User: Fold Aspartokinase from Aeribacillus pallidus.
Amino acid sequence: MKVVKFGGTSVASGQQIKKVFDIVTSDPKRKIVVVSAPGKRFKEDVKVTDLLIKCGEEYLNNGSVKETYEAVVNRYVEIAKELGLSNDIIDRISADLQEILHGDKSNPARFMDAVKASGEDNNAKLITAYFQSRGVEAHYVNPKEAGLIVSDEPGNAQVLPEAYENLKKLRDRSGILIFPGFFGYSKDGKLVTFSRGGSDITGSILANGVGAEIYENFTDVDAVYSVNPNFVENPKEIRELTYKEMRELSYAGFAVFHDEALIPAFRAGIPVNIKNTNNPSAPGTKIVHERTDSNGPVVGIASDTGFCSIYVNKYLMNREIGFGRRLLQILEDFGLSYEHTPSGIDDISVILRQDQFDSETERKVVERIKKELEVDNIEVAYDLAVIMIVGEGMRKNVGTMARAATALAKSGVNLEMINQGSSEVSMMFGVKGTDEKKAVQALYEEFFGTT
Ligand SMILES: Nc1ncnc2c1ncn2[C@@H]1O[C@H](COP(=O)(O)OP(=O)(O)O)[C@@H](O)[C@H]1O
Ligand SMILES: N[C@@H](CC(=O)OP(=O)(O)O)C(=O)O
Assistant:
Protein backbone atom coordinates (compact mmCIF):
# COMPACT_ATOMS: atom_id res chain seq x y z
CA MET A 1 0.00 0.00 0.00
CA LYS A 2 1.26 3.48 -0.88
CA VAL A 3 0.40 6.83 0.66
CA VAL A 4 0.49 9.64 -1.89
CA LYS A 5 0.43 13.36 -1.12
CA PHE A 6 -0.29 16.06 -3.67
CA GLY A 7 0.86 19.58 -2.83
CA GLY A 8 -0.94 22.83 -3.56
CA THR A 9 0.53 23.23 -7.04
CA SER A 10 -0.65 19.70 -7.96
CA VAL A 11 -4.28 20.48 -7.08
CA ALA A 12 -4.39 24.14 -8.09
CA SER A 13 -6.65 23.68 -11.14
CA GLY A 14 -8.94 21.18 -12.83
CA GLN A 15 -6.19 20.37 -15.31
CA GLN A 16 -3.82 19.49 -12.45
CA ILE A 17 -6.45 17.39 -10.67
CA LYS A 18 -6.90 15.36 -13.86
CA LYS A 19 -3.16 14.54 -13.65
CA VAL A 20 -3.66 13.52 -10.02
CA PHE A 21 -6.45 11.16 -11.10
CA ASP A 22 -4.23 9.57 -13.76
CA ILE A 23 -1.32 9.13 -11.34
CA VAL A 24 -3.45 7.61 -8.58
CA THR A 25 -5.40 5.24 -10.81
CA SER A 26 -2.31 4.10 -12.72
CA ASP A 27 -1.16 2.13 -9.65
CA PRO A 28 -3.66 0.13 -7.55
CA LYS A 29 -1.30 0.38 -4.57
CA ARG A 30 -1.96 4.14 -4.38
CA LYS A 31 -4.81 3.85 -1.92
CA ILE A 32 -4.45 6.78 0.47
CA VAL A 33 -4.32 10.19 -1.14
CA VAL A 34 -3.55 13.31 0.91
CA VAL A 35 -4.40 16.62 -0.71
CA SER A 36 -3.53 20.25 -0.02
CA ALA A 37 -5.65 23.32 -0.67
CA PRO A 38 -5.41 24.73 -4.22
CA GLY A 39 -2.00 26.39 -4.51
CA LYS A 40 -0.41 28.70 -7.06
CA ARG A 41 -1.20 28.19 -10.76
CA PHE A 42 1.47 30.69 -11.82
CA LYS A 43 4.20 32.68 -10.06
CA GLU A 44 2.10 35.70 -9.01
CA ASP A 45 -0.98 33.65 -8.08
CA VAL A 46 -2.21 33.49 -4.44
CA LYS A 47 -2.59 30.18 -2.59
CA VAL A 48 -6.08 29.46 -1.25
CA THR A 49 -4.56 29.12 2.26
CA ASP A 50 -3.27 32.70 2.00
CA LEU A 51 -6.67 33.92 0.76
CA LEU A 52 -8.33 32.14 3.68
CA ILE A 53 -5.94 33.72 6.19
CA LYS A 54 -6.80 37.15 4.73
CA CYS A 55 -10.49 36.28 4.83
CA GLY A 56 -10.35 35.10 8.46
CA GLU A 57 -8.39 38.15 9.59
CA GLU A 58 -10.76 40.54 7.82
CA TYR A 59 -13.67 38.80 9.46
CA LEU A 60 -12.08 39.09 12.89
CA ASN A 61 -11.24 42.77 12.36
CA ASN A 62 -14.32 44.18 10.68
CA GLY A 63 -16.75 41.43 9.85
CA SER A 64 -16.74 42.22 6.12
CA VAL A 65 -15.08 39.79 3.76
CA LYS A 66 -17.12 39.84 0.60
CA GLU A 67 -14.26 40.19 -1.92
CA THR A 68 -11.86 37.76 -0.29
CA TYR A 69 -14.63 35.26 0.40
CA GLU A 70 -15.62 35.39 -3.26
CA ALA A 71 -11.98 34.97 -4.34
CA VAL A 72 -11.83 31.71 -2.32
CA VAL A 73 -15.14 30.33 -3.62
CA ASN A 74 -14.22 31.32 -7.19
CA ARG A 75 -11.12 29.13 -7.05
CA TYR A 76 -13.36 26.11 -6.37
CA VAL A 77 -15.94 27.25 -8.94
CA GLU A 78 -13.23 27.36 -11.64
CA ILE A 79 -11.90 23.94 -10.67
CA ALA A 80 -15.39 22.38 -10.58
CA LYS A 81 -16.15 23.85 -14.01
CA GLU A 82 -12.95 22.49 -15.53
CA LEU A 83 -13.76 19.08 -14.08
CA GLY A 84 -17.36 19.15 -15.29
CA LEU A 85 -18.78 18.83 -11.76
CA SER A 86 -22.27 20.01 -10.90
CA ASN A 87 -23.02 23.03 -8.70
CA ASP A 88 -23.87 20.79 -5.75
CA ILE A 89 -20.26 20.61 -4.68
CA ILE A 90 -19.90 24.40 -4.82
CA ASP A 91 -23.07 24.82 -2.75
CA ARG A 92 -21.57 22.45 -0.16
CA ILE A 93 -18.26 24.35 -0.11
CA SER A 94 -19.92 27.80 0.19
CA ALA A 95 -22.22 26.59 2.96
CA ASP A 96 -19.28 25.08 4.85
CA LEU A 97 -17.20 28.27 4.60
CA GLN A 98 -20.17 30.44 5.63
CA GLU A 99 -20.75 28.27 8.67
CA ILE A 100 -17.09 28.52 9.73
CA LEU A 101 -16.98 32.30 9.22
CA HIS A 102 -20.16 32.75 11.24
CA GLY A 103 -18.93 30.38 13.93
CA ASP A 104 -17.37 30.99 17.36
CA LYS A 105 -14.75 33.76 17.34
CA SER A 106 -14.10 33.92 21.07
CA ASN A 107 -10.73 32.24 20.53
CA PRO A 108 -9.17 33.91 17.43
CA ALA A 109 -6.38 31.32 17.02
CA ARG A 110 -8.93 28.50 16.98
CA PHE A 111 -11.18 30.41 14.59
CA MET A 112 -8.24 30.99 12.23
CA ASP A 113 -7.31 27.30 12.32
CA ALA A 114 -10.85 26.33 11.28
CA VAL A 115 -10.80 28.87 8.43
CA LYS A 116 -7.35 27.75 7.20
CA ALA A 117 -8.16 24.03 7.36
CA SER A 118 -11.26 24.50 5.23
CA GLY A 119 -8.91 24.95 2.24
CA GLU A 120 -7.75 21.33 2.31
CA ASP A 121 -11.04 19.97 3.68
CA ASN A 122 -13.16 21.38 0.87
CA ASN A 123 -10.58 20.47 -1.76
CA ALA A 124 -10.60 16.85 -0.52
CA LYS A 125 -14.41 16.79 -0.87
CA LEU A 126 -14.20 18.26 -4.36
CA ILE A 127 -11.50 15.83 -5.49
CA THR A 128 -13.50 12.90 -4.09
CA ALA A 129 -16.53 14.07 -6.10
CA TYR A 130 -14.35 14.18 -9.23
CA PHE A 131 -12.94 10.68 -8.69
CA GLN A 132 -16.50 9.39 -8.18
CA SER A 133 -17.67 11.17 -11.35
CA ARG A 134 -15.00 9.17 -13.21
CA GLY A 135 -16.56 5.94 -11.94
CA VAL A 136 -13.94 5.14 -9.33
CA GLU A 137 -14.75 4.09 -5.76
CA ALA A 138 -13.37 7.00 -3.73
CA HIS A 139 -14.25 8.20 -0.23
CA TYR A 140 -13.53 11.47 1.56
CA VAL A 141 -12.11 10.74 5.02
CA ASN A 142 -12.35 13.29 7.80
CA PRO A 143 -9.29 13.41 10.12
CA LYS A 144 -11.55 13.44 13.21
CA GLU A 145 -13.40 10.32 12.22
CA ALA A 146 -10.09 8.64 11.27
CA GLY A 147 -8.56 9.50 14.67
CA LEU A 148 -5.76 11.85 13.63
CA ILE A 149 -5.22 13.13 17.18
CA VAL A 150 -2.80 16.02 17.67
CA SER A 151 -1.60 18.33 20.46
CA ASP A 152 -3.77 21.37 21.13
CA GLU A 153 -1.34 23.98 19.75
CA PRO A 154 -3.21 26.08 17.17
CA GLY A 155 -1.15 26.59 14.01
CA ASN A 156 1.60 24.34 15.34
CA ALA A 157 0.11 20.95 16.19
CA GLN A 158 2.14 17.79 16.76
CA VAL A 159 0.82 14.29 16.26
CA LEU A 160 0.05 12.28 19.43
CA PRO A 161 1.15 8.61 19.59
CA GLU A 162 -2.40 7.18 19.81
CA ALA A 163 -3.16 8.59 16.33
CA TYR A 164 -1.07 5.87 14.67
CA GLU A 165 -3.13 3.03 16.13
CA ASN A 166 -6.37 4.72 15.02
CA LEU A 167 -5.11 5.37 11.50
CA LYS A 168 -4.02 1.76 11.06
CA LYS A 169 -7.73 0.91 10.61
CA LEU A 170 -7.78 2.82 7.31
CA ARG A 171 -6.08 -0.23 5.80
CA ASP A 172 -9.35 -2.15 5.98
CA ARG A 173 -11.52 0.38 4.17
CA SER A 174 -12.47 -0.15 0.57
CA GLY A 175 -11.72 2.16 -2.35
CA ILE A 176 -9.39 5.12 -2.68
CA LEU A 177 -9.35 7.29 0.44
CA ILE A 178 -9.04 11.04 -0.07
CA PHE A 179 -7.72 12.67 3.08
CA PRO A 180 -7.34 16.44 3.64
CA GLY A 181 -3.83 17.45 4.72
CA PHE A 182 -2.71 20.13 7.18
CA PHE A 183 -4.88 19.45 10.26
CA GLY A 184 -6.00 17.03 12.93
CA TYR A 185 -8.11 17.15 16.09
CA SER A 186 -7.13 17.55 19.74
CA LYS A 187 -8.15 14.94 22.33
CA ASP A 188 -11.23 17.01 23.17
CA GLY A 189 -12.26 17.26 19.53
CA LYS A 190 -10.97 20.72 18.57
CA LEU A 191 -9.65 21.25 15.03
CA VAL A 192 -5.93 22.17 15.09
CA THR A 193 -3.64 22.83 12.11
CA PHE A 194 0.01 21.95 11.68
CA SER A 195 2.46 24.73 10.81
CA ARG A 196 2.44 26.08 7.23
CA GLY A 197 3.22 23.47 4.61
CA GLY A 198 1.89 20.83 7.01
CA SER A 199 0.11 18.60 4.50
CA ASP A 200 3.50 16.92 4.06
CA ILE A 201 3.26 16.01 7.77
CA THR A 202 -0.23 14.49 7.35
CA GLY A 203 1.08 12.23 4.57
CA SER A 204 3.98 11.03 6.67
CA ILE A 205 1.75 10.30 9.69
CA LEU A 206 -0.65 8.31 7.52
CA ALA A 207 2.23 6.39 5.92
CA ASN A 208 3.42 5.43 9.40
CA GLY A 209 -0.10 4.60 10.64
CA VAL A 210 -1.00 2.24 7.80
CA GLY A 211 2.54 0.85 7.45
CA ALA A 212 2.84 1.98 3.81
CA GLU A 213 5.60 0.53 1.65
CA ILE A 214 6.42 4.05 0.43
CA TYR A 215 5.30 7.65 0.94
CA GLU A 216 5.14 9.43 -2.41
CA ASN A 217 5.12 13.21 -2.19
CA PHE A 218 4.10 14.84 -5.48
CA THR A 219 5.08 18.44 -6.14
CA ASP A 220 6.07 20.63 -9.13
CA VAL A 221 9.77 19.85 -9.53
CA ASP A 222 11.49 16.76 -10.97
CA ALA A 223 13.62 16.29 -7.88
CA VAL A 224 15.03 17.90 -4.79
CA TYR A 225 17.86 20.02 -6.16
CA SER A 226 21.20 20.49 -4.47
CA VAL A 227 20.34 24.17 -4.06
CA ASN A 228 17.20 26.31 -4.23
CA PRO A 229 16.42 26.58 -7.98
CA ASN A 230 15.50 30.22 -7.47
CA PHE A 231 19.16 30.98 -6.65
CA VAL A 232 21.04 28.88 -9.19
CA GLU A 233 19.98 28.00 -12.72
CA ASN A 234 19.60 24.27 -13.49
CA PRO A 235 21.01 23.01 -10.20
CA LYS A 236 22.11 19.40 -9.83
CA GLU A 237 19.28 16.97 -9.02
CA ILE A 238 19.68 14.77 -5.96
CA ARG A 239 18.72 11.11 -6.55
CA GLU A 240 19.05 9.89 -2.96
CA LEU A 241 19.23 11.53 0.44
CA THR A 242 19.27 10.17 3.96
CA TYR A 243 16.51 11.19 6.38
CA LYS A 244 19.11 13.10 8.38
CA GLU A 245 20.32 15.05 5.34
CA MET A 246 16.80 15.90 4.20
CA ARG A 247 15.73 16.99 7.67
CA GLU A 248 18.71 19.35 7.92
CA LEU A 249 18.11 20.71 4.43
CA SER A 250 14.38 21.22 4.78
CA TYR A 251 14.82 22.81 8.19
CA ALA A 252 17.41 25.16 6.70
CA GLY A 253 15.30 26.33 3.76
CA PHE A 254 14.48 23.61 1.21
CA ALA A 255 10.81 24.56 1.05
CA VAL A 256 10.01 21.52 -1.11
CA PHE A 257 9.40 19.28 1.95
CA HIS A 258 8.41 20.17 5.54
CA ASP A 259 11.23 19.34 7.98
CA GLU A 260 8.81 17.87 10.56
CA ALA A 261 7.37 15.53 7.95
CA LEU A 262 10.37 13.21 8.02
CA ILE A 263 10.10 11.91 11.57
CA PRO A 264 6.93 9.73 11.27
CA ALA A 265 8.18 8.07 8.06
CA PHE A 266 11.69 7.69 9.48
CA ARG A 267 10.42 6.02 12.68
CA ALA A 268 8.55 3.42 10.66
CA GLY A 269 11.42 3.01 8.16
CA ILE A 270 9.22 4.11 5.25
CA PRO A 271 11.11 5.57 2.28
CA VAL A 272 9.90 8.91 0.94
CA ASN A 273 9.89 9.59 -2.79
CA ILE A 274 9.54 13.20 -3.93
CA LYS A 275 8.12 13.26 -7.47
CA ASN A 276 6.72 15.65 -10.06
CA THR A 277 2.98 15.63 -10.85
CA ASN A 278 3.84 17.22 -14.21
CA ASN A 279 6.41 14.54 -15.06
CA PRO A 280 5.49 11.43 -13.05
CA SER A 281 7.80 9.08 -14.92
CA ALA A 282 10.89 10.95 -13.68
CA PRO A 283 12.45 9.02 -10.77
CA GLY A 284 12.40 11.97 -8.36
CA THR A 285 14.35 11.96 -5.11
CA LYS A 286 14.34 9.07 -2.64
CA ILE A 287 14.83 9.64 1.08
CA VAL A 288 16.17 6.55 2.81
CA HIS A 289 18.10 5.32 5.88
CA GLU A 290 21.35 4.80 4.02
CA ARG A 291 22.16 5.92 0.55
CA THR A 292 24.20 3.97 -1.92
CA ASP A 293 24.90 7.03 -4.07
CA SER A 294 28.23 8.56 -3.17
CA ASN A 295 28.00 12.26 -3.80
CA GLY A 296 30.95 14.43 -2.78
CA PRO A 297 31.16 15.61 0.82
CA VAL A 298 28.26 18.01 0.29
CA VAL A 299 24.85 16.86 -0.97
CA GLY A 300 22.96 20.14 -0.66
CA ILE A 301 23.17 23.81 0.27
CA ALA A 302 20.17 25.46 1.93
CA SER A 303 19.59 28.95 3.26
CA ASP A 304 17.04 30.97 5.11
CA THR A 305 16.76 34.57 6.29
CA GLY A 306 15.15 36.35 9.23
CA PHE A 307 17.57 35.44 12.00
CA CYS A 308 19.15 37.56 14.74
CA SER A 309 22.04 36.79 17.05
CA ILE A 310 22.80 37.65 20.65
CA TYR A 311 26.58 37.70 21.04
CA VAL A 312 27.89 37.51 24.58
CA ASN A 313 31.53 37.83 25.63
CA LYS A 314 32.99 37.23 29.10
CA TYR A 315 36.59 36.54 30.05
CA LEU A 316 36.94 32.99 31.52
CA MET A 317 33.44 32.00 30.41
CA ASN A 318 34.83 28.47 29.93
CA ARG A 319 35.53 28.21 33.69
CA GLU A 320 32.11 29.42 34.80
CA ILE A 321 29.93 26.40 35.53
CA GLY A 322 26.33 26.86 34.42
CA PHE A 323 26.91 29.97 32.26
CA GLY A 324 25.31 28.49 29.14
CA ARG A 325 22.39 27.08 31.10
CA ARG A 326 21.66 30.40 32.81
CA LEU A 327 21.89 32.27 29.50
CA LEU A 328 19.43 29.91 27.83
CA GLN A 329 17.20 29.99 30.93
CA ILE A 330 16.76 33.75 30.45
CA LEU A 331 15.60 33.12 26.88
CA GLU A 332 13.28 30.36 28.07
CA ASP A 333 11.73 32.76 30.61
CA PHE A 334 10.70 34.94 27.67
CA GLY A 335 9.32 31.96 25.73
CA LEU A 336 12.06 32.29 23.09
CA SER A 337 13.28 29.26 21.15
CA TYR A 338 16.79 29.29 19.72
CA GLU A 339 18.24 27.67 16.60
CA HIS A 340 22.04 27.52 17.07
CA THR A 341 24.64 28.34 19.70
CA PRO A 342 28.13 28.65 18.20
CA SER A 343 30.65 29.21 21.00
CA GLY A 344 34.32 29.87 21.80
CA ILE A 345 36.36 30.00 25.03
CA ASP A 346 35.16 33.40 26.14
CA ASP A 347 32.13 33.95 23.95
CA ILE A 348 28.89 32.45 22.78
CA SER A 349 26.27 33.52 20.22
CA VAL A 350 22.67 32.47 20.34
CA ILE A 351 20.86 32.52 17.00
CA LEU A 352 17.11 33.07 17.07
CA ARG A 353 14.37 33.60 14.53
CA GLN A 354 13.86 37.35 14.80
CA ASP A 355 10.09 37.36 14.32
CA GLN A 356 9.78 36.35 18.01
CA PHE A 357 12.15 39.11 19.22
CA ASP A 358 10.63 42.62 19.29
CA SER A 359 12.52 45.66 20.61
CA GLU A 360 10.84 45.52 24.02
CA THR A 361 11.79 41.84 24.47
CA GLU A 362 15.32 42.64 23.31
CA ARG A 363 15.66 45.40 25.91
CA LYS A 364 14.47 43.15 28.74
CA VAL A 365 16.58 40.15 27.68
CA VAL A 366 19.75 42.24 27.31
CA GLU A 367 19.14 43.88 30.69
CA ARG A 368 18.80 40.50 32.43
CA ILE A 369 21.86 39.01 30.71
CA LYS A 370 23.97 42.03 31.70
CA LYS A 371 22.76 42.00 35.28
CA GLU A 372 22.63 38.29 36.05
CA LEU A 373 25.61 37.05 34.03
CA GLU A 374 27.85 40.12 34.44
CA VAL A 375 29.09 39.86 30.85
CA ASP A 376 31.90 42.02 29.41
CA ASN A 377 30.11 42.67 26.16
CA ILE A 378 26.76 41.92 24.57
CA GLU A 379 25.67 42.72 21.01
CA VAL A 380 22.47 41.97 19.14
CA ALA A 381 22.61 41.77 15.33
CA TYR A 382 19.55 41.51 13.05
CA ASP A 383 18.76 40.42 9.50
CA LEU A 384 21.15 37.52 9.27
CA ALA A 385 20.92 34.63 6.84
CA VAL A 386 21.84 31.13 7.88
CA ILE A 387 23.36 28.91 5.22
CA MET A 388 23.79 25.18 5.78
CA ILE A 389 25.93 22.83 3.78
CA VAL A 390 24.81 19.28 4.36
CA GLY A 391 26.15 15.81 3.56
CA GLU A 392 26.86 12.53 5.33
CA GLY A 393 30.19 12.48 3.42
CA MET A 394 31.50 15.39 5.52
CA ARG A 395 32.17 12.97 8.40
CA LYS A 396 34.93 11.33 6.44
CA ASN A 397 36.15 14.33 4.46
CA VAL A 398 38.84 16.65 5.79
CA GLY A 399 38.94 20.27 4.74
CA THR A 400 35.30 20.93 3.87
CA MET A 401 35.11 23.87 6.27
CA ALA A 402 38.27 25.40 4.79
CA ARG A 403 36.94 25.01 1.23
CA ALA A 404 33.65 26.68 2.17
CA ALA A 405 35.27 29.53 4.11
CA THR A 406 37.74 30.21 1.26
CA ALA A 407 34.95 30.22 -1.35
CA LEU A 408 32.98 32.73 0.73
CA ALA A 409 36.03 34.94 1.31
CA LYS A 410 36.87 34.94 -2.42
CA SER A 411 33.37 36.11 -3.29
CA GLY A 412 33.66 38.96 -0.79
CA VAL A 413 31.12 37.59 1.72
CA ASN A 414 31.92 38.42 5.31
CA LEU A 415 31.31 35.51 7.70
CA GLU A 416 29.48 36.55 10.85
CA MET A 417 29.72 33.07 12.43
CA ILE A 418 30.43 29.41 11.75
CA ASN A 419 29.07 26.32 13.49
CA GLN A 420 29.59 22.65 12.81
CA GLY A 421 26.64 20.45 13.82
CA SER A 422 27.56 17.80 16.41
CA SER A 423 26.35 15.09 14.03
CA GLU A 424 28.99 16.23 11.50
CA VAL A 425 26.35 16.08 8.80
CA SER A 426 26.03 19.85 8.50
CA MET A 427 27.95 23.09 8.76
CA MET A 428 26.28 26.40 9.39
CA PHE A 429 27.43 29.80 8.16
CA GLY A 430 25.88 33.04 9.36
CA VAL A 431 26.11 35.95 6.91
CA LYS A 432 24.34 39.28 6.44
CA GLY A 433 20.89 38.74 4.89
CA THR A 434 21.89 40.90 1.91
CA ASP A 435 24.75 38.47 1.14
CA GLU A 436 22.56 35.34 1.14
CA LYS A 437 22.32 34.79 -2.61
CA LYS A 438 25.98 35.62 -3.29
CA ALA A 439 27.09 33.24 -0.52
CA VAL A 440 24.89 30.38 -1.73
CA GLN A 441 26.11 30.81 -5.30
CA ALA A 442 29.78 30.83 -4.17
CA LEU A 443 29.29 27.64 -2.15
CA TYR A 444 27.43 25.96 -5.00
CA GLU A 445 30.25 26.80 -7.40
CA GLU A 446 32.80 25.40 -4.94
CA PHE A 447 31.09 22.06 -4.30
CA PHE A 448 29.13 21.45 -7.50
CA GLY A 449 30.59 23.82 -10.10
CA THR A 450 32.32 22.71 -13.24
CA THR A 451 34.97 25.43 -13.34
N1 LIG B 1 16.30 22.53 -3.10
C1 LIG B 1 15.11 22.55 -3.68
N2 LIG B 1 14.74 21.59 -4.54
C2 LIG B 1 13.53 21.62 -5.15
N3 LIG B 1 12.63 22.61 -4.95
C3 LIG B 1 12.95 23.60 -4.09
C4 LIG B 1 14.19 23.62 -3.41
N4 LIG B 1 14.22 24.71 -2.60
C5 LIG B 1 13.08 25.36 -2.77
N5 LIG B 1 12.29 24.71 -3.67
C6 LIG B 1 10.96 25.15 -4.12
O1 LIG B 1 9.97 24.29 -3.58
C7 LIG B 1 8.86 24.30 -4.49
C8 LIG B 1 7.94 23.11 -4.19
O2 LIG B 1 7.40 23.23 -2.90
P1 LIG B 1 5.91 23.77 -2.66
O3 LIG B 1 5.75 25.09 -3.35
O4 LIG B 1 5.59 23.71 -1.21
O5 LIG B 1 5.11 22.69 -3.50
P2 LIG B 1 3.71 22.01 -3.27
O6 LIG B 1 2.71 22.97 -3.83
O7 LIG B 1 3.81 20.76 -4.08
O8 LIG B 1 3.54 21.72 -1.82
C9 LIG B 1 9.55 24.25 -5.85
O9 LIG B 1 8.71 24.76 -6.86
C10 LIG B 1 10.80 25.11 -5.63
O10 LIG B 1 10.60 26.45 -6.06
N1 LIG C 1 -2.12 24.67 2.35
C1 LIG C 1 -1.26 24.67 3.50
C2 LIG C 1 -0.64 23.32 3.77
C3 LIG C 1 0.29 22.77 2.73
O1 LIG C 1 1.03 21.82 2.98
O2 LIG C 1 0.27 23.34 1.51
P1 LIG C 1 1.30 23.00 0.26
O3 LIG C 1 1.21 21.52 -0.05
O4 LIG C 1 0.78 23.89 -0.85
O5 LIG C 1 2.72 23.38 0.69
C4 LIG C 1 -0.23 25.80 3.40
O6 LIG C 1 -0.23 26.51 2.42
O7 LIG C 1 0.53 25.99 4.32
Summary: The chain has a mean pLDDT of 94. The domain at 300-448 is CATH 3.30.2130.10 (VC0802-like).
